[in-house]
Amino acid sequence: MKRYWTLAALFLAAMTPLGAAAQMDVHLSTDKPGGGQIHIVVKDLEIDRDDLRAASKYLMSVLRQDLKFTSVFIPLEFAAGTDTLPDGGTASAIVEGRLSWDGEKYSLDVSLIDFVSREMIFGKRYRFRHSALRTVSHELCDEILFFLIGEIGVARTRLLFTRREGGVKNLHVVDYDGYGEKKLTTGELVVSPLWVDDHRFVFTSYRRENPDLYIIDLTRGSRKMISHRKGLNIACGYNPGSDELVVTLSIKGNSEIYLMDLDGKLGRRLTKNRAIDVSPVWAPNGREIAFVSDRTRTPQVYIMDRYGGNVRRLTTEGSYNTSPDWSPRGDLIVYSSRDGGLYRMKLISPDGLWLETVFDDFFSYEDACWAPDGRHIAAVVRYSGEPWIVIIDIDSGTRRRLARGETPSWSLLRSR
Amino acid sequence: MKRFSILFLVLTLAVLMILPACSKKEAPPVEEDITPAEEVPPPPPPPVVEEPEVIEEEEFEPLVLEDVFFDFDKYSIKSEFKGVLEANAKLLLLRSDAILVIEGHCDERGTAEYNLALGEKRAKAAMDFYMAYGVDANRLSIISYGEERPFEYGHEENAWTMNRRAHMVIKE
Fold first, then answer.
1. Do A292 and B114 make contact, defined as CB atoms within 8 angstroms?
2. Fewest CB within 10 A of the end CB: N or C in chain B?
3. Neighbour-count burial of B2, counting CB atoms closer than 10 A to its CB (0-12 exposed, 13-18 middle, 19+ buried)
4. What structural domains does chain A harbor?
5. Residues B72 and B24 in one domain
6. Chain A interface disruption, residue of B113, B128, B151, most A CBs within 10 A
7. Are residues B86 and B165 located together in one domain of the fold?
8. Distance between CA atoms of residues A322 and A331, nearest Å
9. A276–B contact, CB cutoff 8 A
């Protein structure tokens, strides 16, 4: 079996860039949650000049961290000066390569080698400027993930979040690994940012004395107000398929859910009652919307179709269930559930039949949002009262702090 | 009602005496009021009510309305705050030039987005009370800050209690 995939991979590596490999079969599989992590040896790069040592170390250390952050791989290193693992153990693959510099750009020739047969699984050449060192490592990690298990990685995604600074909340963006944080707004109260793709997002700001909806395009550096209807203008979900936002407006003083396009043009109204209706998010297939309503006196998560019909209550346990987010795989909805003084992060199937509390510890996990890989969740955890964005691998439960802040939104995948 | 018209009269007269400069505009209404004024003089001593003084002060000081507070995750007006809203509404009726913005606030617990909707409901509850009392809806507006602009920054019940409120902001 192994021989076949090695051969197929060799053929692929020779013939195609990875983007075209989407139709190929998956080589390994780690379907079992928590188990079956893949060991990968990351070798130091060969260099022909001593002054490339720093860059090569940097590339590989970012790659090792990226591999670790996938929760799929365990990066290893050979014992110094050998081609064997220190404990005599085994791995699935080896990453090795050569870095050179032509006075303007780096060239990285890198290959993924089968550990046992030492045959090449794929080879790739990157040419890039110094400023792209991290991006190249991220891209390489995503390639390895895609090649070995057929999943799309999030190494090149970013997160938006808000952070209280003085009397306001500023909007920040940061790479998925916590690097390169940038402040995007200053001196205005910002809430509920939401990516619509990998470089544009909407958010609500009180800049003009009303919670209005704005869109920012990071590539063009532009900002535009798209909805300034009286009362709340909050976008919670975006459906790339139909190019529609699902928003909360409160034109008459009571929050209701509507569809809206990215220019702020109002579409269908989906709810109509005296209760709170808020926090709508799309199912990834664009057919249904999960939202929060207190129509039965306590906030609960409901599901309706995209026309506002077929409303059904999803959550039945507890008196405070809010903040739903539908996984990109479609099979789970994460939400926040009050339990005594804590807010538990819960996962529920859209039919409501399967329900799980993710962590049963002493912390609250709030405002959870899915990563586009459906494998990770960003949530807000308060440590000594200080809110942090924490990245959670839902299969293994591994957590890492990303940045101080609240209301995370995870960018969509960069188009390949 | 009669008491108010008397008050109004006394006030207008007082203002007229203090500010003789602005004579043009206010002259005609005074004439209209003269007839009842003649009947009034006998009772002036009794109006020892406290309200006139308060109102006179407020001609020069900004109108201040009291805030009302809510239970966790609730937006119904608690019975103990109906009196506060009633007093506020009376002042609003007296000061017909005052524009009121009611801010809805929540404590830090719970989901930020849900709290924006909840804060709005709290502000709306206060606004509905004023409207029921006869305050012109055009003078009233609401804005929700959810948990975003706390009055107290603590993380315990004392701070939370202070932050679950409809805050009355007069804009003139």
1. yes
2. N
3. exposed
4. 2-149 (3.40.50.10070), 158-410 (2.120.10.30)
5. no
6. B113
7. yes
8. 18
9. yes
